[in-house]
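Q: We require from you a single protein entry containing the residue sequence and its fold in token form, and nothing else.
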Amino acid sequence: MKAIDPFDLPHQEARSLLERGAPLFMPVNPVEYHGPHLSLHNDALISRGIASDLHARLFPEQPLLYARDLEVGVEPCPGPGTRASPFLAVASAVREATRAAVELGARKIVFVTFHGAPLHAHALDEGVSRAEELGARAVAPLTPVLERMVELDDPSPLAPACAFIEDAALRAEALAGLQLDFHAGFFETSLALHYAPESVSDIRHALPPCPRPEADPALIAASRAARLVGKTVLARELAFAALGQGWNNLRPFPGYTGRPSLASKEAGAVFVDVLMSVMEPVVRAALFEGRRQPTPLMSWLRSVTLDGRIQTSKVALADVLAVAGV
């Protein structure tokens, strides 16, 4: 189904579509470096595909209403062409866009993004809260996907996506490394090949694997401390943050994780099915049943970064543990 941007329509037509209950998909993605093989708009391209699939599954009788991307994102990957926006600016933009959409008649809003920075998820949650304040329903379905990534102790359910890798050793390596494959690697490049193959360069075939990052030792120590006092969720989040910080510390910095060279559109199709299995129930519960989506992970980040005024890499661990009650 062809997407319609309601903000391109005459005002009366846009209002009529929204007031009849058609959901509005609102993309919020940064212009962000995704290595030398993917586009700066990669998150936006994947978001459009995700929205189309969610719409086909949940709202097949409704028109696909898809707004223009806000093109803002908190803590994007550094690299040539990246545009970074402060948390408060993104949260403000999302809240204002939400107000305007509800004022126009939107009653159901889906915030779509494929940018996984935790503070970005919190900015989108501001839009969810604003919609609820105004009597509408909203959801940001990447939130439960990020939770699954943090909890990915056993990657075996994702083995079908790796089955298209012919070499057995590489296949096993790709599966074992999926928790670390969070930016422009095998996972995201496969999704891009599925949704927007024209945006993916053949240079991916020549890219070496990203070196395995060394987990940040201070964050690992904090994770162990949290686990000792029974803060299991916090312990997982800190361990995941330790790996992310280790990746950011790589020099030279590759701008991608994992092995983009192993990506394929077939793997991308498998990953899409996994994404839909996680996202669809959350969207259904929020928009049809009025159930609030889960709070974004790392709930302590807003406090310890003073709403993004302090870079996450500069946050004192003592402050994190204090906020979390450790």
